[in-house]
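Hey team,

Filing this mostly as a record. A colleague (T.K.) asked me to run one chain through the structure pipeline before their review meeting, and I want the input and output archived in the tracker in case anyone asks later how it was produced. No errors, nothing strange. Just documentation.

Input sequence:
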Amino acid sequence: VLQEVVGNRYNDHFYPTISGVARSLNFYPIGNEKAEDGIANIALGLGKYIVDGGQTLRFSPRHPHNILQMSTMDFALRETQTRYYALDLKNLAEQFSVDDSFNLLRLNLKDADADGSLKFIVSTYDPYDQIIRDGYYPGGRKILSFVNVLQHDVFPLADTLDQILHVGQEEMGRPIEIEFAVNIDPMKTEQSRGGSPTATFYLLQIRPIVDNKEVMEEDLTLVEQKDTILSSTSVLGHGIVTDVQDIIYV
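Output structure:
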């Protein structure tokens, strides 16, 4: 299967402005969010960064103004993406490898700043006034808040995700997960939208969320205590308890 890679070329680097994963079911809603409102994780650069467990921005498409990671300055400075993946256009590999990062570069946010790709997706930390300003300003540390996209509607990402997740779930008949990318071209603007940049949304994959019902065949009571490295009499495992009668919720 050959799939075109989404992105812009920045000199010897190639990557999208935003890549992300979204689910129509959120197992850990916070505040006034509901599980069926869904959840999304977004990052700068190629999606491998998200798959590898990198630091992403997490938000519910129906609550794009409620971002826990931006709730305090300390949290925002600590829980922000600092690296990203880009395709290396300078050192083209002569042959493919089973290593999926053989032709990728793991770059620093300063590289993206030099590329000019941060303009619409960052906030700027002002160390003198000790505040975080929405948008891109010269100097100061850049924080990947995606504030212009999520809260100032430079591109209607949250609404787009919300509609796709709920249409997809309805058509598939079960909760779904999608992978997507967004390309914002800072060189092209739309006069009809007040000079906003031209942006394109790409739906890359859609699949049902699979419920993993683990089956444990092993009888752990037969294992000798002397052969055990670590044990507990009270633990939350991955099995299923079928004889629960009452639940007290506090």
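Quick notes for T.K.: The mean pLDDT is 87. Residues 120 and 147 are 8 Å apart (CA to CA).
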